[in-house]
Amino acid sequence: QVQLVESGGGLVQAGGSLTLSCAASGSIFSINAGGWYRQAPGKQRELVAIIRSGGFTNYADSVKCRFTISRDNAKSTVYLRMNNLKPEDTAVYYCWHLGTWGQGTQVTVSS
User: Exposed e or buried b for every residue in 18-37, given b needs 16+ CB within 10 A?
Assistant: First the structure.
């Protein structure tokens, strides 16, 4: 059974940075994709970024050039480095891996 544990959310001022981490267990992490989604109040959950087993990445247009997704297969962990954060980035961020969701971590960006 896949389990995901997220960490790294918090409150930050606009223009600031945060790094989210998602540690996976119960899977062969290195051969599967991992990703981050987010859900703002009153909105649908949306894809933020995804990284595939070969390191290929895709980003939502709204976060390109500001966010970077990476992975450490030895630690079975996916990271999301978020720079130049904007108030519109405020949301609960969810890690995804093999059809499983993390518990979510709140990111709040103040103006």
Answer: bebbbbbeebebeeebbbbb
